[in-house]
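subagent[fold] <- orchestrator: predict structure for attached chain, return tokens only, no commentary.
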Amino acid sequence: MRKCQNCNHENPDNAAFCENCGIKFIDNLKKCPQCQTVNTSESRFCENCGYDFQSATPKDTGNEEQLQQSNRSNAVHDLAEQQVPTSAADVTSTMANGSDNAISSAQERPQVQHAIDGKEKSQSGSEPESSQGKLSSALDGASMMTGGTPDKQRVSRLPKWVRLVSGLVIILLIGVGAYFVYGHPSASSKAPSTPAVTNKERSNVATKESGTSSSGEKRKSVNFNVTEIKKDIGVTVGAIGGTNSVYVSPVNSEQSVVVNKGSQRSASSIKIYIMVTAYAMAKEGVFNLNDTHTLTNDEKVGGTGVIQNMRAGTELSYREIIEYMIDDSDNTGANIMIDKLGGFQLINNKIKSMGATDTKLRRKMLDTKALDNGRDNTTSARDMGTTLKMIYNHHLVSREADDEMLAILRKNQNRTKLPNQLPSTATVYNKTGEYADYGVQNDAEIVRNSQGAFVAVVLSEDGEKTDQLAAMNKLGLMLYQNILA
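subagent[fold] -> orchestrator:
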């Protein structure tokens, strides 16, 4: 058997190359007793450390170490030039051509070390032998790992499983490298861009109530002393003549105080339900708030509102008509919306579906004949109060629709009743109703400040206007001071 001088693998006596590492066997080799480097038999001096085989005294160790370090550096440089492929395609090409240039790490280390010690300087792995090239030829196995092209005989002698594993390792390394290069975008590319807000978008935001207007109060606790609130009601609205109903409740609580649960004349307060029906039908896709209506003289009615003063042929969107109906309590606008939405029955069905069981739309605005026949619009303080709470908490139609309705209620022009004496720091959303012929004075409001928000509704019928307004002014302030101060 012939033992390989590189990896100690035992080979047949007639083998020219090691079956394990592929190194070429050279006869008449001798090993340096000082550094153990294999040299050709005709060499007088060791190729690695300079040891003189004909002398028993080794050379100066200082010079020897410098020479050895230089030789190692040169060999590493040469190996690096041979080993680094120019691209991933080079690696793939090498694999495709059957150049199995990687072997297991246990085999790799001794070959590389041997090549360094032996000053391997071959660029292609197939350089012809010279007087000092015999050792390089013997160490050609190292060049198989450095991108050189081994001859077919040596490749064929590598075990098949070694070539297979080597190929898989190379593919894995390429994949991992590609992942780290392309799979981790920079922090700047991950940061979401903030789109610019156009002037139009700013305008739209400004006309709507922020969705946080109610969510903030849900985390706050307002002072809701039921005994004190009942006392406030008793000394104000409860002390005047006529039929009076009151509802008071925080927007974020099921607590409430209700005085007189029955229904009363709604007057213009019913217009809140006409608005809600329009937004509900718009959400369902059966009505478009942006469609336009052309005003006719036959539609105009008296009482409150400004549409009656517009010329016939004026075009208004239904969204604009609703705003006039709430902010100016426009009677003509309310009648236009009743017709457009499908009449009393359809609107009443929507009102009922909201849970407002005491509320009925039975006539148009200023329809005196209906009044003479005993048909009037009615609601209750509880219906009005719970409806306002649902709008404020975005539980009625949708967040967007409820915010738009809040924005409309906030622009209401009549603040002569419940909010009349409130400080400027209070935000008010309200809708009033009045019909002097029947002694009706109504107000339904949401009041908000930094402490929270609450709903208050007063329906007063068959009373004296001065007494009613004074009682509402006083009650509005007392509730604000007890609940939000």
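orchestrator: received. Logging for downstream: DSSP finds 19 helices and 13 strands in the chain. The radius of gyration is 48 Å.
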